[in-house]
Design brief:
Blueprint (H helix, E strand, L loop, with lengths): L1 H75 L4 H83 L3 H14 L3 E5 L2 E2 L8 H10 L3 E2 L6 E3 L2 H4 L5
Parallel strand pairs: 1-4
Antiparallel strand pairs: 1-2, 3-4
Helix pairs in contact: 1-2
This protein binds zinc ion (ZN).
The site of zinc ion has 9 residues, from loops.
Length: about 240
Amino acid sequence: MLKVLVPADEEIRKLDLELVKERDALEGVKKDLANVREKIEQERQQYDVIEADRGARIQEGRVMQQQLERSREKLNRTRNEKESNAVQRELEETRKLLRDVEDAVGKRSLELDELRKSIIDHEEQEAGFIARIGETEGAVSARLQQIEAERSEKARARDEIAKKLPAPLLRKYDQIRAKRTSGAARLEGGRCKACNMSIPPQLSQRIVRADVLEPCPSCNRLLYIDAQASTPPAS
Ligand SMILES: [Zn+2]
């Protein structure tokens, strides 16, 4: 029975690995999509903040322009050099403040240009991920269904075989399988076919003669004889 159970379990194990792989592939792209969307969201928020700041600076600049004009008018009305000098100083001061504000507006504009470009790049990436998910999702879910169907059929067949084994033996087999991916190994040419360690002749003979199940002293898998596999096919 073990010689039937081992390949059945191996097939199920491979299908499980395939299921994980198929699911991971799709999950990976979905994660990429979520990441890029989060980035776009952050950039849009950042854009709004900078744009609002730029608007406020532009407004500030307008106020300064008006102040400059008032100062210029005042300059025309000055009656002596002292007054004139004071207004000139005022003009200089306002011009300097206006330059700073204009610099800030220019800097914000550049930042907004950069952000716009980055958002466009990220939106292109987003579209790419969406397209890829669309393409693969159908194929992957069909493949998943197929693998799952195949797996449950194999699992049913496996349980049929397992039922025929004595419960303690099955328990032991399942315990080893949980630790070592396979629970039993063929004894062939005096060696364990799983770990390739040679089996002491006495133990080997006992297994062959009595067809009893003994664990491999090295990997602990249950050793079994497969007459079909160890004898060359008759022609
Ligand atoms: Zn072994």
